[in-house]
Amino acid sequence: MNYEDVMKLALERGFYFPSCEIYADAQAGFWEYGPSGVSLKNKFLELWRRELIRRDGMMEIDGSQIMSKSVFEASGHLGNFADPIIKCTKCKSTFRADRTISEISKIEIPESADLVEFDNAILQNNIKCPKCKGDFENAKKFNMMFKVGIGPEEEEAYLRPETCQSIFVDFPRLFKTMRGKLPLGIAQIGKSFRNEISPRQSLLRLREFYQAEIEVFCNPTKLDEMERFSEVQNTIIRIQIDTKAVSMTCKEAVESKTIPNKFVAYYLGILAEFYEKTGIDVTKSRFRKLGDKEKAFYAQVAFDFEV
Predict the structure, then answer these.
(1) What is the DSSP string of 58-107?
(2) pLDDT of 25-81, one tens digit each?
(3) Helix (H), strand (E) at residue 117
(4) Counting CB atoms within 10 angstroms of each CB, which of 48, 163, 165, 266 has the fewest?
(5) What percent of the chain is helix, strand and coil (3-state, nearest 5)?
(6) What pTM, to 2 d.p., does this model score?
(7) Coil/strand/helix, residue 228
(8) Helices then strands, each counted (H, E), the chain
């Protein structure tokens, strides 16, 4: 079944469909779940809560979708949560730089690369505007957060681009009032908002979307003192090493230093078990360690789960 068949089925069976579709000015990147979609989503969330939240004894919260400017100044999102864009000098159309370069020249440049790398790739490969064949201006950054004005004075605030912000902001209160001890997992499911340059492929790249987020707070000096690691030490995970995915147990991954410590290996293990229970063919999946220019600006180590 190809993408077009999936879309046709989703529309005909009431899984999901474009928001405001009866109006000509409906914006891209906003979709709505029908009855079948809501039922499927709720089943997924129940599995997520059972296999991750309740299994690990985590807390679940429900935070505000609008947060103050100070939150995103402190997190670095105001200065760093941006994608590279290029604008045509002729027709004035705007495109995402890394995607356009990849689609036309098959050259992959991480979205966090220096802007000069995009400019050089466009110049060296003679990349032109897909619409009018015009030249591009120099690449620049576009911040993807939605700005909102609060009250009659329109005080500056933002729709959250991720569900993790309120988890971090609320941690001191939660740790104290719930008598928490490390490691402590805090989870949240809710809407996030990103002003994507070119939303596409229905639910795969949206401007308003659900996120199921988990943040686990820990003592960085005790990452190999993970009591529950024994539960997953024999769980098979597939990790990309160089150019191919290699299957190994969590224990083997730690011993070979493919994964830096038992803490990270434990959570990759329970995630692998969770994804398999969702119906994903794990033999066609992998955990890929992100490079310095791919991972989030605040991350020391990061893995993407890819199918």
Answers:
(1) -EEE---SEEEHHHHHHHTHHHH-EEEEEEBTTT--EEEHHHHHHHHH--
(2) 999 999 999 999 999 999 999 999 999 999 999 999 999 999 999 999 999 899 888
(3) helix 115-124
(4) 48
(5) 35, 25, 40
(6) 0.87
(7) helix
(8) 10, 15
Q: How far is CA 249 from the centre of its chain?
A: 26
> Could you report the per-residue pLDDT of 78-119, keeping only the tens digit for each?
988 899 999 999 999 999 999 999 999 999 998 888 999 999
Mean pLDDT of the chain: 93
Q: Which of 1-5, 27-31, 175-179 has the lowest mean pLDDT?
A: 1-5
Tokens 């928001």, residue located: 19
Cβ–Cβ under 8 Å, residues 63 and 170: yes
Side chain identity at 241, as an amino acid letter?
I
- The answer to whether 130 and 97 have CB atoms below 8 angstroms apart is no
* Both tokens assigned to 160: 């959250």
The structural domains of the chain, ordered by start, are 1-46 (no CATH), 82-143 (3.30.40.230), 221-306 (no CATH)
Q: Say how far residue 148 (Cα) sits from the centre of its chain.
A: 22
